[in-house]
């Protein structure tokens, strides 16, 4: 089969590639749509980071293999022990994996990684996935939009853990793909005002289109100027840090009111230096969120299917499987991009 295979930093090759034979507890999915995730981009620009150069102790898989964990498709074949999906079913995959591939995923501390990062993923015509992570897609939801469930679930999990309440104020620092999903989720959760902060006017314009009430370029506004412009004496109720660098981590705390909540969604590619005394003086709570629970993934699927979250807004480009290497370069360099979807099977499904 054809696949966009990841070998290492800045090295993705579209070539013929074959996975191991389908296992008894696995489902073979003909991939329809796959999104390029920020974590995929980190692997491409700075990696390997979370992909195994040596055999992974849980999956025994190692590079090279295709990345890709935000995807939907149609069941092509099933293993001998598979019972809850059948050939021809339209499905979306929850790519979070545990040692036993149990469906709770990151509900507990045994979450170990993602399909597409520790085993072959969906920048390929076919992908094998454990039955436990394969879910049927409602008939009314196009597979294109089902592929957006995974990134939106990441944002929704952070929103749940931050206990964002109806009528609260929100700041989102960093409006790449997950920042955009956070804006969509916060709006759906009833935030009364959402402010987006970034260094890119192009991304800020997109954030405005996605529902941000105000946008600020950090080149032109410092933290106090943002608070003054918003008329906030003390700060935002909840701030989401989605940029992953030291200045934005500090700024997130500065923007948040005493006993407010900072939620970190970003993947920090490098260590940072930071003085915890900032928390002692500010009384701000800080937490990090990774992935999503089993229920959050399914809840997000339902929210998108019933139109409560219009995740289609985050799509900025659609490309073919042959164009995946160029797609990574586009996402890395074009700040107008949020979610680039790969139309793997070439059909509009």
From TrEMBL:
Matching Gene3D superfamilies: Medium-chain alcohol dehydrogenases, catalytic domain, NAD(P)-binding Rossmann-like Domain
InterPro entries xrefs: ADH-like_C, ADH-like_N, ADH_Zn_CS, ER, GroES-like_sf, NAD(P)-bd_dom_sf, Zn_alcohol_dh
Cofactor: Zn(2+)
Name of a matching Pfam family: ADH_zinc_N
Record's keyword terms, sorted: Metal-binding, Oxidoreductase, Zinc
Domain Enoyl reductase (ER) residues, every copy: 8-342
Family recorded in the similarity comment: Belongs to the zinc-containing alcohol dehydrogenase family.
Name of the protein: Butanediol dehydrogenase
Annotated source species: Staphylococcus auricularis
């Amino acid at each position: 089969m054809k696949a966009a295979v990841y070998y290492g930093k800045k090295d993705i090759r579209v070539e013929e590639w074959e996975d191991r034979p389908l296992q008894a507890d696995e489902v073979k999915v003909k991939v329809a749509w796959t999104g390029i995730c920020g974590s995929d981009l980190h692997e491409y620009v700075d990696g390997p980071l979370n992909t195994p150069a040596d055999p992974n102790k849980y999956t025994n898989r190692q590079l090279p293999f295709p990345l890709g964990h935000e995807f939907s498709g149609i069941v092509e074949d099933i293993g001998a022990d598979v019972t809850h999906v059948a050939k021809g079913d339209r499905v979306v995959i929850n790519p979070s994996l545990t040692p036993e591939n149990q469906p709770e995923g990151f509900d507990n501390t045994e979450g170990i990684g993602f399909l597409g990062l520790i085993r072959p993923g969906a920048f390929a015509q076919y992908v094998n996935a454990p039955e436990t992570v394969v879910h049927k897609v409602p008939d009314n939801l196009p597979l294109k939009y089902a592929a957006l469930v995974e990134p939106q679930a990441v944002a929704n999990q952070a929103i749940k853990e931050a206990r964002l309440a109806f009528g609260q104020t929100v700041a989102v620092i960093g409006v790449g793909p997950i920042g955009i999903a956070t804006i969509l989720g916060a709006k759906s959760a009833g935030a009364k005002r959402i402010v987006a902060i970034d260094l890119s006017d192009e991304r800020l314009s997109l954030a405005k289109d996605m529902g941000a009430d105000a946008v600020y370029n950090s080149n032109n506004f410092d933290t106090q100027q943002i608070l003054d412009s918003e008329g906030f004496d003390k700060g935002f109720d909840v701030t989401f840090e989605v940029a992953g660098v030291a200045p934005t981590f500090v700024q997130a705390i500065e923007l948040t009111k005493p006993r407010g909540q900072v939620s970190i969604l970003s993947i920090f590619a490098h260590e940072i230096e930071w003085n915890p005394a900032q928390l002692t003086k500010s009384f701000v709570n800080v937490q990090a969120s990774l992935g999503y629970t089993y229920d959050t993934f399914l809840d997000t699927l339902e929210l998108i299917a019933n139109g409560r979250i219009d995740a289609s807004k985050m799509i900025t480009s659609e490309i073919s499987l042959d164009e995946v290497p160029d797609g990574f370069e586009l996402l890395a360099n074009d700040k107008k991009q949020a979610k680039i979807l790969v139309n793997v099977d070439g059909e509009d499904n």
